[in-house]
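#lab-general

N.A. 3:47 PM
ok so I finally got the sequence cleaned up, no stray characters, all 108 residues accounted for. can someone with queue access submit it? mine expired

B.Y. 3:52 PM
send it over

N.A. 3:53 PM
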Amino acid sequence: FWFEGCPSCVREIPDLNDLVDIFGNKDIYYLAIGRDSRDDVLSFLNDHPWKFDQISDGSDLLDGRFENIWGYPTTLVVNESGVIEYSFGCINEGNKQEIIEKIKSLLN
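B.Y. 4:20 PM
back already:
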């Protein structure tokens, strides 16, 4: 979950892209749900390439379905049954290896 006015959201994009590079997309689907309009997201992605598929205009989904109580950014790791197995806030160099190890353990 993200929006372009969130400095932590923007800062973590390269680290999230690293997860795609590490785990590939054979067994994992990467989806970012943002609050911003489609046009704003497309413009933003020109300067901030992101390897996740994007859902824009996600405010209704975030406020209704998820009631985004976690804050921004929030990343959820969801299994094939739709169960949230793991969640974290902003990925960064300080917690990146721990997150990678946790995701590896969920894939095994």
